[in-house]
Amino acid sequence: MSAAALVRPRPVHRAADLLSAYLPGSFYYSSARGSLLADGVHAPVDAPHGTRAAAAAAALTAAAVAGVEEPVVVGAIGFRPDGPSSLVVPALVRRAGAPGGDGPTGAARVPAWTITPRPEPAAYTAAVRRALDLIDDGDLDKVVLGRCLDLLADTPVAVPALLARLVRADPAAHAFAVDVSAPGDPAPRTLLGASPELLVSRHGTEVVANPLAGSLPRVADEDENRRRRAALLASAKDRAEHAHVAAGVAEVLGRSCVDLDVPAEPSVIGTPTMWHLSTRITGRVADPADPGSSALALAEALHPTPAVCGVPVVRAREAIADLEPLDRGHFTGLVGWTDLNGDGEWVVTIRCAEVCDRSVRLFAGAGVVAGSDPAAELAETGAKFRTLLRALGAEDPR
User: Fold this and answer.
1) Which SUPFAM superfamilies does this chain map to (predicted)?
2) I need a labelling partner for 286 at 20 to 30 A (CA). Which of 31, 114, 159, 383 fits?
3) How many other C-beta atoms can be found within 10 angstroms of the C-beta atom of residue 200?
4) CB of 334 within 8 A of CB of 180?
5) 300: closest CA among 363, 365, 352, 344?
6) Which helix (H) or strand (E) holds 96?
């Protein structure tokens, strides 16, 4: 028998097959570059803030030595330095191309929802006004304030069908589903979403980050959408907010990358519910074998960007802890994957929800800068909720 005959052919998967195969407890991730479905746990990756990339590299090396084929680390990291982390080397990984709009539809039944805002809208706008006072006093240049919607269904939520609807609604988004179960949960807890914001990717020597800041809701009328795109590009307030974010990301990547390209002007990108100012920053790592230049190491260095925290970062994080009534957990953290070569993709955990049995908690936030209007920031978070509300078949509570 020839050596070639002994080589087992690699299974060929379709993106729709991976989406259909997803079950709660699995890890799912898809973007324009492809789809990944991971199952089982070969080894957990448990390390404190700032050392997770090194721990992931060690776990990947150990997995390769143990015979795991093409091992990866997958999972999610929370917003705060002491926040939750769910990184693992899975036992089985399947890959496919980018998803299309033809994924499984799931059950057609729409649950009856009870929706509770946290905090109440009036309390959120009051927090924005307090943040504006801090900005006026010179304590902050920007702070991002989040809020939640707690939804309760009359039956358990079908997570695979919900994920499928998110992917089908926007195949170009960075869709994800991660098990984040904690002791005491009555059922598996899943973090899932469709993030528009790439924190950082690395493939070979190429590094890409795509920070977003400055937003307007998308509407059905295309003439009005053209006006809103133009208004975003012309808005001094939104451009200033975006400049904080792009400069912060460029400064961090400049420590590890060469040939860094930062466009002088932002562009506008769209999702099914929003328009965002966007800057696509590219560069190269000089030595892709350097553990400090892995996708996860770069993501750790970048997190949290001013897009989800503020400027300056430490003071903004203190203000968030003071002004937001609930701990963010995984919201505005990062989710993604890294392989043995250091390649990978990590996205900002936005347009997301946590699902456990009949309960769903949705998250959204808005950046507050000088000139922000509290009512407009409330409306922006409401528009951002629509990604998940539509997928859930729930009414917008406004």
Assistant:
1) ADC synthase
2) 31
3) 31
4) no
5) 344
6) strand 92-96
**CA distances to 91, 145, 178, 201, 211 from 75, in Å:** 13, 25, 6, 15, 21
Quick check: 27 pLDDT over 90? yes
- Residues 112 and 389: their CA atoms lie apart, in Å, by 13
d(C-alpha 204, C-alpha 289), whole Å: 9
Of the candidates 144, 178, 243, 254, which has an alpha carbon nearest to the alpha carbon of residue 23?
A: 178
Other residues' Cβ atoms within 10 Å of the Cβ of residue 32: 12
pLDDT at 5 over 50: no
Q: Closest Cα partner for 162 from 353, 381, 385, 371?
A: 353
**pLDDT tens for each residue of 321-335:** 999 999 999 999 999
Catalytic residues: 142, 197
CA distances to 30, 76, 104, 185, 387 from 38, rounded to whole Å, are 12, 13, 19, 22, 25
Query: What's 291's DSSP letter?
Result: G
Taking Cα atoms as reference points, which of 297, 345, 347 lies closest to residue 55?
297
- Residue percentage of the chain with pLDDT more than 70: 94
Point out the least confidently predicted range of 107-116, 165-174, 176-185, 305-314: 107-116
Q: How much is the average pLDDT of 92-108?
A: 75
> What is the mean predicted confidence (pLDDT) over 254-273?
95
Contact 57, 294 (CB under 8 A): yes
Residues 6+ apart with CB under 8 A from 32: 98, 172
Domain limits of the chain?
Answer: 14-99+114-392
Strands 34-39 and 92-96: antiparallel
* Cβ atoms 96, 126 nearer than 8 A: no
Q: Report d(CA 189, CA 175) in Å as an integer.
A: 17
Which two three-digit tokens encode residue 20?
């259909």
**Residue type for 97, please?**
G
Dihedrals φ, ψ of 286, to 5°?
A: -70, -35
Q: Classify the phi-psi angles of 227: left when phi > 0, otherwise alpha if psi is within -120 to 50, otherwise beta.
A: alpha
Which residue reads 């009949």 in tokens? 358
